[in-house]
Amino acid sequence: MITKPEPGRGALAAILVGAAVMLALSTGMRQSMGLLQPAVLRELPLTAADYSFAIALQNLVWGLTQPIFGALVDRHGARRVAAGGALCYGLGLMVARYSSSVLPFTIGLGVITGIAMSCTGSTIAMAITSRAVSPARRSLAMGVVSAAGSGGLLFVSPLAQQLMASGGWSLAFVGFAGLAAVMLPAAMFAGGVDGRAAAETGSAQKQSAADAIREAAAHPGYVVMALAYFVCGLQLVFLTTHLPNYLDVCGLAPSVAASTLALIGLFNALGSLAFGWLGGRYSKRLLLGGIYMARAIIVTLYFTTPPTPATTLLFGAVMGSLWLGVIPLVNGLVIDIFGIRYMATLVGVAFFSHQLGSFVGAWGGGLVFSWLGSYEWAWRFTAGISFVAGIAQMRMNLRPIARSAGPTALHVGGNSSDHLGSMGNTR
C-alpha cells in the first residue's frame, strides 16, 4: 500500500478536529436518547419495553455492522464511510420523528440510526486518529479526541431538554437531525487521513481481514478483552437509557437527569484525556480492570440510597470520569498485540461484543422495570458482572503476535509494563 507523507500541522488539526466533532455529535445524541423516553411514552402508543427495544436494537445493529464498516475503512479509507453515516443519522431520526406506531419508530431509531453510529462512532474516530499521528503520540491523541468527543453530551443533553421544553420530543428529534447535518462536513475533514495509514511490514501486509479476525479469535487475551467489553456496553447503555426514567419514577425533576448527563459528558472528557495519557505510560489492562471494578462500586453506592439531586449529580460526575476512558485503552491494546493494519476491523469485532451488552442493558433494563416495577435487580446485575469483568481484564494475556513482537510493537501506543507482563503470560 502506498502511503502519503505525514500530514502537516494544519492538515493534522483539520483531521483531528473533524474526528472529534463527528464523535461528539454522534455520541452526544446517542447518549441523550434516554432523556426523550418519558415524553415519547406519554405521546406515542409505546411502552417502556418498546422504547428500550428500539434503543437495544440500535446498539445491536451498530455492533453487527461495526466490523463491516471497520473493514471498509481499513481497506478503502474513512471519508465515504463517515459521510454516509452522517446522512443515515439524519434519515433515521426523521423516520422516528414522523412515526406514529412501534414499527416505524423502531426502524428509524433502531435500525437506520444504528447503522449510522457504526460509521461515525468511536471505532471509526479512533481509527482515523491512530493513522494521523505518530506511534509515540498515539495513545494520548486517542485520549484527546475521545475527550473532545465526550463534550458532545455536555452540549447535546441540555439542548435536548430545552428543545423538549419548547416543542416537545418531536422538536428535539428535528434538532438532532440538524446536528447530524453538521456531522457531514466534520466527516469530510476527518477523511483527510485517507491514504496516510502507517506502513506495516512483514506478514501484516499479506493478511486479509478474515485472516486477521481468525488470528484475533485465537488470541486468549483478545477474547477476554472482548468479553469484558460486553460488560462495558451493558453498563453505559443501561444508565443512559434508564437513569432518566428512574429519576422520573423517584419524583426528581427532568432537569436533574439532563444536568446529570451533561456532567457525565464533562467528566468523561477529563477521564478520557487522563486514561489516554495514562495508557501511554502504565499497564492498559490494569487500567481497564480498575475502571470496571470502580464502576461496580459506584453503581452499588448510588442505587442503595434514595436519590437526591445532589447525590445524582455526584454520581454523574464520578461515573463520567470512568465513562469512555476505555476507548483509548482498548484501541491501544489491539494495536499493541496486532499492529495497526486491521485495527478498525478488530476493534469493530470486539465492539460487537460491547453492543451485545448494550442490547442487554437497554432492553433488559426495560423488561425488568416493566415486569417488576423497579430497577433494583437490573442494577444489581450490572454491578456484579462489572466486578467479575474487572478481575478478568486485569489477568488478560498481552502476548503480541509473532510479526509484531519486535521493536515496532513495543512502541506502537504501548508501554513497558504491559509488554514485560506479557512475557510471563503466554498461555
For the secondary structure, the number of strands is 0
Beta-strand level of the residues, as a percent range?
A: under 5%
Let me know the CATH homologous superfamily. MFS general substrate transporter like domains
Here the CATH topology equals: Growth Hormone, Chain: A
Uncertain parts: 198-203, 404-417, 419-427
CATH architecture: Up-down Bundle
Biggest sheet overview: none
Helix segment count?
A: 17
CATH classification, class level = Mainly Alpha
Roughly how many Å is the radius of gyration?
A: 20 Å
How many distinct folded domains?
A: 1
Whole-Å distance between the termini? 34 Å
Query: What's the helical proportion of residues?
Result: over 70%
In short:
This protein is mainly α.
What would the keywords be for this entry?
globular; 427 residues; 79% helix; Growth Hormone, Chain: A; mainly alpha; single chain
Tell me the layout of helices and strands.
Elements: H1 9-31, H2 33-43, H3 48-76, H4 79-97, H5 102-120, H6 122-132, H7 138-190, H8 209-217, H9 220-249, H10 254-279, H11 284-303, H12 309-321, H13 326-338, H14 343-372, H15 376-394, H16 407-411, H17 416-423
Helix pairs in contact: 1-6, 1-7, 2-7, 2-9, 3-5, 3-14, 4-5, 4-7, 6-7, 6-14, 7-10, 7-13, 9-10, 9-14, 9-15, 10-12, 10-13, 11-12, 11-13, 11-15, 14-15
